[in-house]
Specification:
This protein has 382 residues and is an alpha/beta fold. It has 18 helices and 13 strands. The strands form 2 sheets. It has a 7-stranded parallel β-sheet with strand order 3-2-1-4-5-6-7, sandwiched between helices. The protein has a 6-stranded parallel β-sheet with strand order 10-9-8-11-12-13, with helices on both faces. The protein starts with 9 loop residues before the first strand and ends with a helix.
Length: 382
């Protein structure tokens, strides 16, 4: 076991959404396996809270969506920033680790740089897709980028940023432990029936924007064929709020809270909000329909800034439209039903999608990202 030195070291870790909570929890476990005496604190979701982590602020109070929507959450964002700013100044951690959530985390990186606290950034913001000017901030304020896609390395090297490809953390977290039939029977569903999984997002406003439309589409599709649905809640979404939305539907749609990957694996088709969930679905080799809706103003702003042809991470990595994307005005019940019919009934299309998802998985490196980042962090502490 590596020893940093005799002086007790502290790390501040900040995540801002459900995927960061997952990656952060595995990173904390990897760090503590190597250095049991480390003290780690910061912003946590449900999974980080289950580790030996000192929670200063919770992810559920931070999550916003889009440029305009973040303004509505400004009070909580400002409260969290002031708390973390004070903590950085008073406790002077030996290292600041930031996971994604760039609009918030880059401010902390700037502050840490002024305090001479080294900064390790794990899971790059998608600056290669939009707002590329942020790379200048990263080059000034971040000491080391740990990226999860191989194509990100040359982008950062070109801008003089120290960068290491660590592999994608989902390769070690996306695991199936129960047979489809066992999962569906436990939910009171029929393993013989076609099953569709609904993943409306990891943020409150995503769920409120996506889930009612998904449920309406489910009702329409359910009226024309023998089919059943499940809904999967992210750890950063309030269970009562999601349950309330589901209860408004005439359909019986069980909500899965703690068995995420087994639930997704039990589905024949997944409807998912754009985000990390699309990669999780891809690693399980499940055909999917990617959806997303923003406020009108945010969408218009994003169209001016985004420099890529796709919004779904699966399609972005592949460089082609492997699976359908229903964004903004295209995201409506009749379009979801239309695409679902094709993906459920056309076996050739399903086979082609699965083949391309298999190739995409091979491009994400090997499992063990958390351990590699932990080693990087300990080297920076030394």
């Amino acid at each position: 076991m590596r020893s940093v030195n005799a002086t007790k070291k502290e790390i501040m870790l900040v995540v801002g959404e459900a995927s960061g909570d997952v990656h952060g929890a595995h990173l904390v476990q990897a760090l503590l396996e190597r250095e049991p005496d480390l003290r780690i604190y910061g912003v946590a979701g449900e999974l980080l809270e289950q580790t030996r982590f000192e929670v200063l602020f919770t992810v559920a109070k931070l999550t916003g969506m889009g440029l305009v929507e973040l303004v509505g959450n400004a009070t909580n964002l400002w409260r969290a920033y002031r708390l973390l700013r004070r903590t950085l100044r008073e406790r002077k951690p030996s290292l600041l680790i930031l996971i994604d959530f760039p609009d918030f985390n880059l401010r902390l990186a700037k502050l840490a740089k002024g305090l001479r606290i080294p900064v390790l950034y794990y899971v790059s913001p998608q600056i290669w897709a939009w707002r590329q000017s942020r790379v200048r901030q990263i080059s000034r304020w971040v000491d080391h980028m740990a990226v999860v896609f191989p194509f990100e390395v040359p982008f950062y090297e070109k801008h003089g940023v120290k960068v290491t490809f660590v592999g994608h953390p989902l390769l070690e977290t996306v695991r199936v432990t129960h047979d489809r039939g066992v999962v569906l029977e436990k939910l009171g569903l029929d393993p013989a029936k076609t099953t569709v999984a609904l993943l409306p997002g990891s943020r409150r406003k995503e769920v409120s924007a996506h889930l009612p439309v998904m449920l309406e589409a489910a009702a329409r599709l359910g009226s024309e064929r023998d089919i059943q649905f499940i809904c999967i809640r992210a750890s950063t979404v309030d269970a009562r709020e999601m349950d309330a939305l589901v209860r408004e539907s005439a359909l019986r749609v069980p909500v899965i809270e703690t068995d995420r990957y087994n639930g997704m694996n039990a589905a024949d088709l997944v409807w998912t909000a754009s985000g990390t969930a699309t990669l999780e679905t891809a690693l399980l080799l499940k055909p999917m329909i990617i959806v997303y809706r923003l406020s009108r103003l945010t969408y218009l702003l994003a169209r001016r800034l985004i420099k890529v042809d796709h919004i779904g991470m699966v399609n972005l990595i592949a460089g082609e439209r492997i699976v359908p994307e229903l964004v903004q005005d295209d995201f409506k019940p009749e379009r979801i039903v239309e695409e679902s019919r094709i993906m459920l009934d056309n076996q050739n299309i399903r086979t082609r999608i699965i083949e391309k998802l298999t190739k995409l998985r091979e491009r994400l490196g090997s499992a063990g990202a958390a351990g590699r980042v932990a080693e990087m962090a300990l080297a920076m502490l030394s």
